[in-house]
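Field reference: sequence -> structure
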Amino acid sequence: MQREHLLQVGDQWIIKFNIINHEGKDVSYIIKVLVDGKLYNQPVLIKDGGVFTAIHHIYPDRLTEGDISFAIYKEGEATPFEEVTYYLN
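Structure field:
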C-alpha cells in the first residue's frame, strides 16, 4: 500500500511515502508519526484508486534520541497495516 523514502536534504531529513487506496471504496486513514516520543496525527481521506503523498520534515537539531516511527491505520482499526522505524543519530 505504501512506498517510503528517507532523504537527507541540506540540514534536514525528509520522510516521504505514498498511500495507494485499492480498497474499492473511499477510505479514511490515520498517519501517526512518533518523533522522540512526540506524537503527530494526520487524518486523511483517500478516494478509491487515489494516492496520497505524506511528507514529514525532521530537523537534526530538534532530535534528542533520533527514534522516528511511522504507522498507517485504517480509521477505526487498532493495528496498523504499515509500520516503519528509523534510528537517526
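Note: Residues 21 and 49 are 5 Å apart (CA to CA).
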